[in-house]
Target: Drug:proton antiporter
Amino acid sequence: MMLPASMALVREAFPDAARRARALGVWAVGGAVSALVGQPLGGLATSIDWRWVFSINVPVGAAMLLALLAVAPSPTRPARFDAAGQVLSVLGLSALVYGLIEGGHAGFGAGPVVAALAVAAAALAAFVAVQARGRHPMMPLNLFHARGFRLALPVGFAFMVANYGHVFLVSLFLQQQLDLSPTHAGLVFIPAALFAIAGNLTSGPVTNRFGARVPVVLGQSCMVVGLLALIPATAQRSPWLVALCLIPIGVGGSLAMPSVTSVVLEGVPSERAGTASAVFNTFRQVGGAVAIAVFGALIADPDTFTGGLRTSLLVAATLLTVTAVLSTRIQPRAHVG
Model:
């Protein structure tokens, strides 16, 4: 609920494309800082009692509620509630996520898993039909007329497969295979998070200078390099080498995502920014769910953990390679300062 609204606030506050590109880079720094603080803090909290990890967002959320008091109210417009679309989307996505997660450990041939995935397919197909025919759709299909928007969706999906996937996999590898404590495992991610902050701040100027296509393609390519480098690095069993391989993943993601977000926001009218952001974020979150479910299934057996880890990294790298090639079709934009 928060992420699409925050993207819409950026679109509202910065109608100029050049200023918005820089603002999106600063906006994305929040994710990099959270990774910098969250990994070691989460590891420390887990060392004390894993239940404490759920308390981390409480003070942050309270601070943000206070900060929002300084933000001017956004303009509103009448909009009817798309009840049918809401019900079908919740049913479809819930069944999809359940089927993927349960399939990861029960097997994708299990009866409940097959039933859940069938319900998901039927509900999501019905959702698209309702959106096409409804007078007040929650996801207007004409959003997909914008070429940049269509290209951005698979990029967001692939990014989250790789991002959620590699954190999930590497965290388990460091603790289960290298016997690191949760705190020490969290520290391995700090160099990548530091470089990600620099990548976020660089993304805006690079986008303004070369257009979105260059940072999006370059960023995904950097992530591919890091993911592929992790495959032989796991055989060396060195936390330092793993930390080094994580850096291009952090840099690449931080360079690409603000730029691809600008593609999403530029391709739609300002009043549709929230809706477009929500659709984009939905594709991202489904990518994260798919990564955890599928990769979790591949590493579930301790005897084949390493092989499953390397297969998962290769799958993520392959998916990003495909979307990097697709991203070359993003419309180049002239220098905007």
